[in-house]
Amino acid sequence: MLQRRKIIGVMGSGTEEYRERVIPLARWLAEHGYDLLTGAGQGVMRAAAEAFIAVPGRRGLSVGIVPGEVEDGAYRPKAGYPSEFIELPVFTHLPLSGERGKDSMSRNHINVLTAQALVFLPGQAGSVAEAELALRYRKPALLFGQGREFHRFPERLERTDSLEHVCEWLLSTVR
User: Which InterPro entries does its entry note (predicted)?
Assistant: First the structure.
């Protein structure tokens, strides 16, 4: 019987890294046998993947869902994707993001549907869209940071600035 992988999505800014939160979270995920799923880009995504793969002896993979498009029969990933810390890139033909992050041609649907649980760090419109999709698809999701950093995110999502709480939540949510 195949054992189901424990895939945790870490979502957030494509420009800001929030390393003080991302690095300990990504290391904890790697140390506890989870797979890391990101949007394969820069910012939080890159910092999480870099910290995750740096953990010696880890069992999980760094997975990245890559936006891209097909023009004149040629596939091209979005510029800057995937980051060099993605071990398993999943190339998509889905180019939309940001303000259009909930559209059917956005990879955000795959990000949310693939993860067993999602941890959100502060981000812009694309991260907000993923949080809204998490609610739509009834995926467990938690906001990790200061409450004021999430003023654009859905109010229904729990917020915490405690890594310990995030880890306890993951252990009780993903089995």
Answer: LDcluster4
Other C-beta atoms lying within 10 Å of the C-beta of residue 146: 11
Q: Tell me if residue 75 falls in helix, strand or coil.
A: strand
Q: What does R_g of the chain's alpha carbons equal in angstroms?
A: 15
Q: Note the pLDDT of residue 50.
A: 98
* Beta carbons of 4 and 33 less than 8 angstroms apart: no
What tokens were used for 16? Answer: 């800001």
* Pairing mode of beta strands 158-160, 141-144: parallel
**What structural domains and CATH numbers belong to the chain?**
7-173 (3.40.50.450)
Cβ(54)–Cβ(47) below 8 Å: no
Phi, psi of 25, rounded to the nearest 5 degrees: -65, -50
Contacts of 165 (CB under 8 A, 6+ apart): none
Task: Write down the pLDDT at residue 4.
Answer: 81
Q: What is the pTM of this model?
A: 0.96
Q: Please, what are the averages of pLDDT over each run of 10 residues along the chain (175 residues)?
A: 85 97 98 98 98 96 97 94 98 95 96 98 97 98 94 96 98 94
Neighbour tally for 99: CB within 10 Å: 12
**In angstroms, rounded to a whole number, what is the distance separating the alpha carbons of residues 126 and 63?**
18
pLDDT of residue 117: 98
